[in-house]
Predict the 3D structure of the following.
Amino acid sequence: DLLSLPEQPAWQNFRLFPATAKPAETTDPLGIEGVKTFELVVVPQSTEITELPPLVFSFFDPDARVFRTLKSPAVQLVVKPAAATPTPLVAAAAKAEDKLPATDIVPIKQRFGTVATIKPPLVQQPLFWAVQACPILAWLGLLAWRKHADTLANNPRLRRQREVARAIRAGLARLNQLAAQNNSDEFFATMFRLLQEQLGERLDLPASAITEAVIEQHLQGRGLPEQTLHALRELFQLCDQARFAPIKTTQQLAALVPKLKVILDQLRTWNP
């Protein structure tokens, strides 16, 4: 069944229609020997043709181990012109694909449909790198916070210095409120406590141990200007006098806040 009709180069002046083959008739059980019949329709293309050239068939002879060629005798023809030559009907099984409509030409699409913008790859988008950097930045922030906490834990003096700075900022704001409320007792108590905190931090002494006496014991002759020492004495004395003769006016209390702030700033920058 694998045998097909060979091409015939000598039949170029003939129109050839597809050949049909009948099932092979084998003469042995193995199906090696047998007969296969082909039917082929040929139409001469010119009235000058007088014969059909021989049919040539080449094959390999396994017994003699050579190629052999067989030729049929030429067929004499008399070709007459005709008004119209009908296309011969070839008894061939129609293939399923021949019945299907042709789809090789597709109509032009008139609408694009939904058009999407092609975005660049993620590695080229800034947002991608920003998201990737978030864990690293968070880790660096935690590392910095941890080092800061360790520094404060290993340096009590620095920790106290920062705590005193926060207390003084809050205390100065509180003094302005107390002055506006004309609360003399609370005003001088807060001012005395701020002086204790700042001097205690600078001298590395407990805040409760700070009184006017530390001026003579620890501050005299240690680099502070005499004007600053004199202002400190006045503030301590005002705090003591307020217990017995409190200042009554808001203006007098408010005038002491800038003076106290100057003294505290000088003490903060003083290196004992």
About this structure: The longest strand covers residues 56-61. Confidence is low (pLDDT under 50) at residues 90-94. The CA atoms of residues 153 and 159 lie 8 Å apart. The chain is about 45% helix and 10% strand.
